[in-house]
Amino acid sequence: MGRAFEFRKGRKMKRWSAMAKAFTRIGKDIVMAVKEGGPNPEANSRLRAVIQNSKAANMPKENVERAIKKATDKDTANYKEVLFEGYAPHGIAILVETATDNNNRTVANVRSYFNKCNGTMGTQGSVEFMFDHTCNFRIPANGIDPEELELELIDFGAEEVFEDEDGILIYAPFNSFGTIQKELESRGLEILSSGFERIPQITKALTEAEVADVEKLIEKLEEDDDVMNVYHTMEEA
């Protein structure tokens, strides 16, 4: 198995555990998708993907419909995606993906977390190059051979296809998202969920005490409402 498989195995169940937090994130994704491409999922592939993810997170249908309606309101603030970079203690690189309607607030909050946890904020591009920006799709297994599917999807950008207990996962570079989404839909394959992740190219093993230092910063970041995802180069247990 490749790095995507190991990355997914390490992160599984560690993050996104709070249902309310997941719903908040999906709500922001809906607003950004509607503002970008309109409220019709048939004509808006990004919105279509977010709705699929809302089902995977068991978000009630009425919550989704309410979020779409709210997003069409001109008075609803748009969210801007902003990436923050830095280092946790012990030389661990940190990437923080945020969606914010107030950049000054988000910058101040993220900087305070780094400072309080003995980390350092970095400049743009200081650690982003250490991560591969990927997209992923989950489909039902339904007797599909992952190796055969991987061979069929290589021409569309797929780099890694594997099966776990929840279905088949397809990983590809970030810019292959639309191509693979279109191909899966044209084949009539149900997309259970999809998204983007940043996979560290190299990870660093730490002692138990050092892990606790890094986890302290990660937890503070993840508790912030503006933070969507936190990625790091610490080796997962």
UniProtKB/TrEMBL annotation:
Q: Family membership, please give it.
A: Belongs to the TACO1 family.
> Which InterPro entries does the annotation name?
Integrase-like_N (IPR017856), TACO1_YebC-like_2nd/3rd_dom (IPR048300), TACO1_YebC_N (IPR049083), Transcrip_reg_TACO1-like (IPR002876), Transcrip_reg_TACO1-like_dom3 (IPR026564), YebC-like (IPR029072)
Q: What is its main location?
A: cytoplasm
Q: What are the leading ranks of the lineage?
A: Bacteria, Pseudomonadati, Bacteroidota, Flavobacteriia, Flavobacteriales
Q: According to its UniProt record, where is this protein located?
A: Cytoplasm
Q: Which UniProt keywords apply?
A: Cytoplasm, DNA-binding, Transcription, Transcription regulation
Q: Cite the Pfam families for this sequence.
A: TACO1_YebC_N, Transcrip_reg
Please report the stretch or stretches of sequence annotated as the TACO1/YebC-like second and third domain: 79-234
GO MF annotations in UniProt:
DNA binding
What is an annotated GO biological process for this record, any one?
A: regulation of DNA-templated transcription
Under NCBIfam families, the record lists: PRK00110.1, PRK12378.1, YebC/PmpR family DNA-binding transcriptional regulator
One GO CC term of this entry?
A: cytosol
Q: Does the keyword Glycoprotein apply?
A: no
Recorded protein name is: Probable transcriptional regulatory protein SAMN05216269_10425
| TACO1/YebC-like N-terminal domain ranges (all copies) | 4-73
Q: Which domain of life is it from?
A: Bacteria
